[in-house]
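@channel sequence for tomorrow's demo:
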Amino acid sequence: MTKKYIEKILTARVYDVADETPLDRAKILSKRQGNNVLLKREDLQSVFSFKLRGAYNRIYQLTRAKDVNGVVAASAGNHAQGVALAAERLGLSATIVMPKTTPAIKVNAVKSLGAKAILVGDNYDEACAYATKYAEEQGLDFIHPYDDTDTIAGQGTIGLEIVRQHADFIDAIFVPVGGGGLIAGVGSIVKYLSPKTKIIGVEPADAACMTMAFEKKRRVVLGHVGIFADGVAVKQVGKETFRVAKQCVDEMMTVTTDEICASIKDIFDDTRSISEPAGALAVAGLKKYVEQEQVSGQTLVAINSGANMNFDRLRHVAERAEIGEHREALFAVTIPERPGSFKTFCQTIGKRGITEFNYRYADETEAQVFAGVQLRDGMDERLELIEKLKSKKYPVLDMTDDEMAKMHVRHMVGGRASLADEVLYRFEFPERPGALLDFLTRIGNHWNISLFHYRNHGAAFGRVLVGLQIPKGERKQLRQYLDKLSYPYWEETDNPSYQLFLSM
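structure tokens (generated this afternoon):
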């Protein structure tokens, strides 16, 4: 590893604002995983995230090099609070540009630290473009959230602490990855001090820009990034962070939303604290690594990077955690429409808890049931139960991994319709005042809306399921129209759960 980064990390100025956070043993998780699992508790920082380390070091080093009139940053969360706190401690003005979708709790947190908050655009990219232009026009310094050597060095102090706090050999350190600043810093110092310790980066499967960069051997720009783990929702890794990561990262892996939710629960069980989705990424990766590699008796560290969780998101986390832990399966099952059929179905399920049972009378012969079933032995039991249901002549569809079924259909079971020319689409749109009305107005003015389902999940983006009556001759026109909208979308007309529960 380059001498430059080792020196920068060893001399980084972070402890004016940051705490040396504990490296706690996760007793429950260690027992379940058959390894010594340690959590680096960056969620315990004063701003509930590691980001203040890099932000403070960057701004402090700037003040040593020149006169600084003030600083500007673009962020919807943790970086914003880190910059605001650093500027306050150093007596500088700070302006934070945040998307309009940013929850009020995060805007207020920035303001409480004395920074000015400007709300611009629907996403980080729009806010960042405005912030860089604003900084140039006002003669201020723009503080990048990850692609800067001083920022990387500040984050690297976490790796230094880990090695010092655990004197024995560490087999692997799991690091959440967004733009790459944290893994570049931690990887640099750990590989210098303990070359045989593996550095493993973890990303959401729907926001895997570093994973893709490693595969392509160059930086790539993702067309769309998932919104659940918003702290790492980055379309492209930094130029410098990628250069450094190529030298010190052993492996990249991805995890699903359900696996992240399960890990939030795991961390809560051990610490009674609630991590944000990005903060639980490393634990999700650690669990997946243990399962895939079948390792045991090793010392594994997961960096819990933050705890800035919106309270409203907890219901979504709780809903998905059991699925992510393979403790719940979701099935569509056809049962006879006659007295006693539910009892017979339960007898077939056996002594397993039924977490959900939704259906509505369809005709005189049969009914479509949406059933949630508790599992004890994970995937093997799920497959075994499917075979058992089939052996009893129950038509069954496994919907455990069907995103539309989990996000929408399970909350809509109870009505079906036979409509000519109906197509089904799933959308994501910015969760800001007027966005839903704007969406409905723009779609509804062209075609008839035959189905609509929306649930607020406490995130910056809303999820919507829409049925539209579109004559076949107009479907090309529909796709052209949707492409012009700024909302990511997926067609779900052929989704089996739609055919079973919502369409005749």
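heads up for whoever presents: The first strand starts at residue 23 and ends at 25.
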